[in-house]
Amino acid sequence: CNAMALFNGTSGQALQTGLQPAFKFPYLGDMLSIAISIMLQERTLKWYGWILEGTRALFLKPVSGIILRIYCMVFGSRTLTTLLGPLYMQDFVDSYLGPIYSSERNLSNFVRGFQELDAHSCGHLLWQVTCPVLLVAGLWDILTPAYCMARIATMLEGPSRLVIDPISSHSTLVENPERALGELQHFLATIVPRWQRVTSTQFKKLSTAQLQ
Predict the structure, then answer these.
(1) d(C-alpha 179, C-alpha 163), whole Å
(2) Can you state the percent helix, strand and coil of the chain, rounding each to 5?
(3) 152: Cα separation from own chain's centroid
(4) d(CA 71, CA 65)
């Protein structure tokens, strides 16, 4: 490809940085991995499903509804509020979490996904990425903290632009789409045209004369 954009991501081993937004805590990733392994046991999974759904229905949803309404009023996207209504963030969260608890199979697959994300890392291969890359992270992201994206940016061989949005968390495209799309437009208009592919893996920066 000639360019890439990555939003709210990590290079792998997600449990080793998850729930650690400022810095990594010793052994927390290992404890999360053990907890997930216990949760995936057949007898335990059913109980966890009931507990999580009950907690979400009785506590998390009412509280998150109030928090998300305030968030949308203060920091939310004016565009999405106009198009989808003032509760667009709550609708997004419900549509994301609802199916997870709808069956044991869905819950099991969702939890196993964290194991897969933790089982690999592509950090040792990032030096092979030579095309221009845009990286957008949310400052308040606790699932894939912003420092994960900063680390990716330092490991890329080609040109990169790192953007840390100060008002979003793990869903920058939904929480602050104006900033996300603005950065993408800026990247495509001002950075990508300055680089030209010369081989299948190499790019060169064009001079000002060549750009005119």
Answers:
(1) 10
(2) 60, 10, 30
(3) 13
(4) 10
Name the residue among 153, 155, 150, 148 with its Cα closest to residue 125.
155
pLDDT confidence band for 5 (50 / 70 / 90): very high
Residue 4, phi then psi, degrees to nearest 5: -140, 155
- Give the residue with greater pLDDT, 39 vs 160: 160
**CB of 18 closer than 8 Å to CB of 29:** yes
Closest CA to 141 of 170, 174, 173, 112: 170
Q: What is the structure's pLDDT at 42? A: 67
Predicted structure pTM score: 0.91
Residues 6+ apart with CB under 8 A from 193: 206, 211
Residue pair 114/14 in contact by the 8 Å Cβ criterion: yes
